# Entry
Amino acid sequence: MDTIVGPGRLFIRRAANVTDISQTEREPQNQMTSLTIAMVGSGGAGVVASGEMLLRAAAGMGLYGILRKTFGPQIRGGESAAIVRLGTEVVANLGSELEVLLVLDWNNFQRFADEIPISEATVLIQDLQAGEHPQNLPEPRQTLTLDFLGLAKSLGSSHSNLALLGYVADWLGCPSDIIDSAIRHRLREHSQETIELAITVALGGAQLQQDKPIPLQPILSAPEKTNSIGKRWIANGNQLIGLGALEAGIRFVAAYPITPASDVLEWMAGEIESVGGHLVQAEDELAAVNMTIGAGFGGIPAMTATSGPGMALMSEAMGLAVASETPLVVVDVMRGGPSTGIPTKSEQSDFNLAVYGLHGDAPHVVLSALSVADCHFTAGWATGIATERQTLVVVLSDQFLGQSSQIMPPLANTNFSASAAQQLEGDTEVDGTQRYFRYLDTDSGISPLALPGQPGGMFTADGLEHNAAAVPSPKAADHEQQLAKRLRKLDSLVESEHWAEHSSEQRGQGSMLLICWGSLYQVALEAQDKLREKGIDIVVMGIRLLSPLPLEEIKQAMQQATQTLVIEQNQLGQFAHYLRSFDRQGQDAALPPFHQYCRPGPTLFTPAEIVTQIQALIPDQTATEGSARQ
# Structure
């Protein structure tokens, strides 16, 4: 078993879980280089498994990388692809270019061809049995047709994906012992005979690369080895949400499986009992969210995880958590919508649901994870906020963050903690009598919370409006008091240093401010690097705290830039409209020009796409830079 050990924690990592990778540390490169490889086949052909093994082998070589798994919504069969980007420094997005495309089956390729950036610079390698090549693809740099399936069969196997794996690994200069280790880890629950055959087929693929090499020089030159030994993790965002939540104190989880959030629950199911918690699979989303509210009422930090359709079902109960001021964390791993939409594809289209989706005035917190690694931090922060402020916290991730695996340095404990329920220290004297006022209107808006059974702490917690003593009340004064209290207790969150990540210490000191949220932040950072190479300066701001929105901080950054561009992966520009809504009656007319660029999924944003949008907004600077190069 692999383990992660840190201050005050020990989580056992089992199959397909967060994993430590020990390897020889290497000297850092002066400049990052990277390459992207896509492996495509039919569902069940094993290309995703090959991608996982290649990523693990790359970690063993001292490289960083990220693996995107893309597949159709079919229960069985259909299309499947693994897109792996490797680099000598941390790689957090897929980039804009594809160096090598390896195809085992063309049959369903057109179903996701627009997600795989083939260009004239791409080398295409196809299996002899792959079928007919689509006619409308860009002409690749070069095409090789090799008999991977025939090679595997000649060695007694039908798994051409293993021959493909060995072929690519040899091109990357991966030592045989490292690919051997990656295969053994992936197939560790299989028989020894199966494992040895798989290794034999991979070695056959490596020999094929020697005989018929890929006509492209790998740009990932291996740095010189040192004697220091370090560790790297391989994890996806769903696993890291679970890890961050457990470290911060979540001890009860109830959920109903839904793509692409089920991985959160699967991972936590194997870990939560080791820290004294419990996980329950409910009969549906309504039961799941009400179970977690019940646990929160009982003083147990609780969460559930779902996707857009599931959160829509939960919205009434989420309003109960707000009204009763019960701590609750709801994780929404977003997918394409509306309705069933595209369950296996990524999109940022649940913003409006997360921020506005509760009936009545129901102030709550909405956070967005800014990278695969940031899923860990954001889940921990959400847990701390929920218990401290006695409120609902929604965490937005998406399919790309949730199901993409990344090689990363070990993550430190976030140091967030689900504080114990604010215990009733004594009765409150009002009008000469001593009583417990569960919803006392305090300066902070946070009221004393008694646990069930605590002497003197009896109160009613339900969805009816109430007075400070938790007695249901239709009075306007009580309603206004409680509405104001619930809103006030969230106000100071905007002062947190965690509300956003910035690409510059001098916020907004650039010709353009690029604002984004969620998984687009890492893409925008790479676009910033490409623009700087062209002499164009921008500042990137990734918003982690979406509600309540740190409006004054954002305005200050906008005022220091010449113009602002908001990007997001949804059709209507939901966050951009939200941000504009705070400009009441044109009071912010003095702010620099405001632009938005939005489009839906499932095609991911690329750095090159963002560069194009920014260059279109600053043509004078782009033209000047072009003339200078000439």
